[in-house]
Amino acid sequence: MRLLILPLALVISGQAYAQNRAEPRSVTVEQVGDALSNPTVQAGIAGLVGVFADTVLDTRIDPVAHYTDRVRPGDTLGDMVRREDPRFDEKLQNGTRRAVALAGQLTRDGAAMGTEIGKTADKLQALLEGTATLVKAYSRGN
């Protein structure tokens, strides 16, 4: 899991370099969706989530061992979790990648829906304007 830190560091350093340019570059919703769908970005984000998880899982919990038989002396939260689910790290990585991929797809779909909603809003606006014209003409006639 820690080997994924290198790709993540490269992604972050590339972004930092890009931010140091004189002219900022705008990012479209489609570009965000594409980036989140990129397996390299997914792996980097999964690596970052793994680092955060490892930090939390390194918490020693043996001081509360007397409350349960699931905790052994010297245990960390990670020891307990991994004992109960030996595939925890793999599942965390795969689940994070899937979640990021889904976020990418939702972003692209949301952008497409935004376009469609915009078209519908334009049609409704035209319909409302036409209706307002009819109501005004009718009101003048009475």
Strand count, sense and barrel status of the largest sheet are: none
Query: Which residue ranges are poorly predicted, with pLDDT under 50 across at least 5 consecutive positions?
Result: none
Q: What is the N-to-C order of secondary-structure elements (H for helix, E for strand)?
A: HHHHH
Overall tally of domains: 1
In whole angstroms, the N-to-C terminal distance is 78 Å
Number of helices: 5
Q: Count the E strands.
A: 0
Mean pLDDT: 85
Tell me roughly what share of residues is in helical segments. Answer: over 70%
Structure, described:
- The chain is elongated.
- Helix 2 packs antiparallel against helix 5 and helix 3 packs across helix 5.
- It contains five helices and no strands.
- It has one domain.
- By secondary structure, the chain is mainly α.
- About 75% of the residues lie in helices and about 0% in strands.
